[in-house]
Write a structure and sequence with these properties.
- 78% of the residues lie in helices and 5% in strands.
- By secondary structure, the protein is mostly helical.
- Helix 1 packs across helix 2 and helix 1 crosses helix 5.
- It is globular, with a radius of gyration of 15 Å.
């Protein structure tokens, strides 16, 4: 149950990102297609973060230390671009127009996910 709640939180944060950040777009012929695209991209984003982010943190720990953690913003933007690349290869109507859109999109995604997680009770996420 916690996985589905986390997936829904990520999909909602992604939807908010598409509304706020120019250059991050999700398409669909109908509202249902858009929701399914958001869920699919949220799943891709979650898998990319779960698999690659720990490896990047270990390999790039020197950069994290030298930049006092600001390197994480670049890493998040690159992971967001990777999500776009995977979505394009799966023919999902999700587009990120360049590094800066990915940079701001990753920041908005992180803040929106955090805010939604604050609102969602921990008892729902832990189940």
């Amino acid at each position: 149950m916690g996985f589905l709640i986390r997936l829904a939180i990520t999909a909602i944060a992604l939807w908010i990102t598409t509304l706020v950040v120019p250059g991050v777009e999700v398409g669909g012929r109908t509202g249902g297609n858009t929701v399914l695209t958001l869920v699919a991209v949220a799943l891709i984003f979650g898998v990319v973060n779960a698999v690659l982010k720990p490896v990047i943190k270990v390999v790039g720990c020197v950069f994290y230390l030298l930049t006092l953690g600001l390197f994480a913003l670049v890493v998040n933007a690159l992971l967001f671009l990777l999500t776009d690349w995977i979505a394009r290869h799966l023919d999902l109507p999700f587009r990120v127009d360049g590094f800066w859109a990915a940079f701001w999109g990753a920041i908005v995604m992180a803040v929106a996910s955090w805010l939604i997680s604050v609102v969602v009770p921990d008892s729902l996420e832990d189940r």
